[in-house]
Amino acid sequence: MHLYTNYVNTINKSRVLRTKLYIITADASGFWVNLINSLTVGFLICIGTLCKEQCITVFGIFIAYELYAVYQKILSTEHDFSSNSFKNANYQKDKTIKDIISSAYKQIQFKLFSPAWFSCAPVYRMFILLVFFIAVLIARIKIMAGQLPHFTEFDNPASHAPPLTRRLTHLYLVPVNLGLLIFPSNLCADWTLGSLKLIQGWADPRNILTLMAFSFILLLVFITVNWKTPLHQSRAVCMALSLLVFPFIPASNLFFPVGFVVAERVLYTPSLGFCLLIGLGFENLLGLKFVQTKTMTNSKSSEVKKFCSFKNGLHSRKYLRISMGLIIIAFVCKTVRRNTDWSNEYNLFTSALKVNPNNAKMWNNVGHSLEAEGKYSEALGYFRKAVNVQPNDMGARINVGRTYVNLGMPDKAEEAYYGALEYFPKPKKGQTYYARVSPKDLMVFINLANLYINKSPPRLEDAAVLLRRAISLRSDFVDAYQNYGSVLIKLGRYKEAEEAYRNALSYQPKSPDLNYNLGVVLLESHKKSEGLSYLNTALTYNPQHEPSLFAVASTLGESANPDDQLRAINIYEHLLKQNFEPIKVHFALGMLQTDKKNYIKASKHYQNVILLDSDHKGSLFNLALLYRNHLGKPDDARNLALHLIKVHPSHIKSYLLLGDIELTEKANIKLAKQYFEEALKLDPKNIQAKHNLCVALADEDKLEQSESCLLEAIAMEPKPQNHLLQHLEIIRGRLHSRGRHTYTKLKNVN
Questions:
Q1: Which of 24, 47, 54, 58 is nearest to 129 (CA)?
Q2: Which of 1, 199, 331, 442 is 20 to 30 A away from residue 541, measured at CA?
């Protein structure tokens, strides 16, 4: 058994566990002479089937073994009868071989249908096995919803070929798998796509290997049922043959298609039978007596006589043992060498390419392993090679496009994605037809849509068109609905986004993510109660769904009810313990504590955000405001605002805050004016910046300029704010007290 002990993925772990339960069950079956042990065996088989459904084939092994036991019991009497009849010379003269066979057949037929046969223990045990088998089979069919899984041409090309090609190729898999057991040299992690060429007809010479393989199996069957075979050997051959054949049947493609051509992992259990056959053959070879022939000539009569003498064959047995030892050492070395291939994904898949260079899946897998390490340029070469090996492999083209995105080459990525779209079913005018599309291939629409979303400026409408096409190709493609809803939200089309999420929920009503998305859309549409209802539904299916918890807390935090605010704080603190987006949660807590006038707690939350992200715009500004307005730390506020305009030069509110600090706390009117003027450069229609500049001019005792500034500020708004008018009156009052009247301007203002 070539067990991959260093690196085994989840599928192989389940295969190993299933094989262990297989062995335990077979070991326990030797003692199932009563009802309790029989039920224990059935229970172990069910547990093994939960690990991997291939364990269900152990029923076939035990039933075959029980039938063999009954067959041996029926033939035992007939064997004695036949032996005695042939020893009797008179009987041989009177009876022909035809009469003997006819008599034996009648006795077997009588015993097979006699009541005694049905009352024997093996029949009861087989009945229990059949009950368990039917129960497990019904459960498995129910899980599959009564349908076989669908596999594409890339997974198993032969299953999509014409009938003759399909059958000949699938039958050829038997000698291929036997060859892997006998000579495990060219091992490969995956045998899909172009690993094995299809057998197109009878003239293919590989059909000879198929004939030889089935002849070998039939020979084992003959040895098993032949009454001349010693009992202990026939039993062992029966068990070996059952272990070799039955576990392989589900993967043979003979009764239903599977998602691979050859899979070495399905040979775990058949290798038990193979090892048993090797052991039996070695035992038989050791038991042979080697014959030596001697010739003697009589000189008188010129007569030549031949004598046979038997030797113990000690030297031959020695050579046999040495040969077997060398074989075992070779297999051990291969296992150790194979373990190094399984040490990491890159080694595993590159070793597979040496065996099957025409397998595009392996080229893709090597690319994935390099992509996971951030080696995008190298990965791109393998993905492009996969496209060359299998041009119609849409997955390979999607990989090429994604790698171009990672390399910052969006135009090349778009070209690769459109290359994949060329292989999708095209609408035929005036004709209706059905085509099955794999969800993994539909990811090209999502990837291309994301590419358009991230463009500058975003091409949201083009992205929406692509996602609608994906939905039209597969109406239950939930990922497309989710992305489509996100695009519609960015377009401000909340009603359509709500409809998209509701359609997705019709296919996955228990999805927390979909309920969350719909809840958020409803909240944005000002449907607070319904939105909270869907958020709570998401939390019903997943009480720890963190985005839903955050959305609920945000909604409760906006309430004026102190109880709701307290619940929001508790949820936020729970999310912090779960380490869910600490920047986002600390900032929300800071804003909530500010609303509750807990300024010290709020400042601590903003400080935590800045520790995690020193350039966080919202936290820097809010903390600066707290320092200046509520905590009496104008210098700290000034430093934070200066850092903010350094990392975010277009942040207008920071210039306003700096201007206020310089004007009020520092009495630096000149510098304050500079900050206000800088804010006006960024936004010439900013009323607050204009008003603050007017105030600075008044403090500088430039009353005429301040009056003109206020008039300009008032003219910027159709309905001037009261404080502007009041400030204008104050400035005019000061001018009037100094004898500097501005009646024309007053008239214009009125």
A1: 58
A2: 442
